[in-house]
Amino acid sequence: MNTQSPPRFDPTRVPHLLGPFAPVSEEVDVEELEVVGRIPDGLDGMYLRNGPNPRFTPIGSYLYPIDGDGMVHGVRLSGGRARYRNRFVRTPAMAAEEKAGRALWGGLESMVTPDADQVGPLLAGTFKDLPDINVVRHAGRMLALAESACPYRIDAELATLGREDFDGALPAGITAHPKIDPVTGDMVVFCYALEPPYLTWSVIGRDGAVTRGPTPVDGADEPVMIHDMALTGRYVVLVLAPAFFDLRAAAAGGSFLAWRPERGTRVALVPRDGGPVRWAEGEAFWLWHTVNAYDDGVGADSAVVLDYVEWSRLTLGSGGEGNGGGAGEVTGGPARARIDPASGTMSRTLLDDCRVEFPRIDDRLLGRPHRHAAFATGTGRADLLPGEYDAVRWYDTATGASRVWPAGDLAVGEPVFAPEPGSGSEEHGYWLTFATDRTDGTSWFLVFAAEEPESGPVARARVPVRVPLGLHGCWLPSDGG
Ligand SMILES: [Fe+2]
């Protein structure tokens, strides 16, 4: 009999609840931010970013980057002026916790759920919705997205409207990284589950109606975690790394994910026309994020080029999203895979051994060849936590060259591209992100010009409250873009 009690969870010692990651509790409106430099007049719209921000002090456990309640931060730009607002993504579980005045649900790894006496029969024994990873707009819906569950719909003022199951067509939800095809307007999504079917994909048309309900991916016959996907004109690209859900280990107090490198990494090319799935296999690697993908060649056997951020193994928690931290050496960097559906093979090339994450392109090129990609990156300092970056790096895939802007004491987030209005070129536009000074907690909204981003921001808007480091966001031009 095991009489050893598990170590007590102490939230004051969790790095991802401290410093620039520490959650904020206030919902704030600031009508006009102080701007250093000049916000381009043509930038008219809203920049949104989601991220984990527990409403109350966590109990049981805290796993970065998945645990935590969602908080969306928004900067509305118009006429060279910037307005700021932040709001929690209000779930029924959060409402119950607000009524209680404390956390009732434990972190994912603690498996603690409240009983009916605490939260009523509907919420009793349920897992908490965690729409804290990403935020997108499609078919007029603004969605705060969870790792793999129903998203929550929010309005233009960032108020929560409720859980979105797409008129009941996608009851199990979707993952946090859907892909919107800029040509067709379709939003292609996937969902993974612990029970069969383990992996499904669906399509939401440009008018918001589900045109393909959950469709099992043939050959995906075990439960693995898949954080991101890619899309080409022909294929949904799903990378199945050997990160297996292991509930038996979790029940015994271990991790609910097991890394089994001997199983290799498999890539499913799922024809968007519903044809048979094509599989390719290779050595084990892990990816949190794709950069983009596209078809190379014509005809049924055209290859797929997939750009992504490669890690040598799963990194989670203390070795979390986008870091080489944690136990054992982790290597990686921006990478390109060429996947041949005819032979079922893939070749991979590491483009750089630089630590990067949060890759973004001009979203208008999603599914087609892109030239430029931006990443958050590190300058090499040793004290950065997973998810903490102190520079922005831009790669030119045509020349292989990269440009970097070191951010000094600022911790920077994911760079998001805002096109120059009226220009169809990825060369002309702006890169947007939040940054927080790790020495004094001051926060900024940064605007870089795409032509020469390494020169640093052309505008910095001072946010008078701290914006905790977060995850993913988007630029929503006022003209619908
Ligand atoms: Fe992500």
Automatic annotation (TrEMBL):
Residues 320-331 have a biased composition (Gly residues). Keywords: Dioxygenase, Iron, Metal-binding, Oxidoreductase. Its EC number is 1.13.11.-. Residues 320-341 are annotated as: Disordered. Binds 1 Fe(2+) ion per subunit. The keyword Oxidoreductase applies. This is Dioxygenase. It comes from Streptomyces toxytricini.
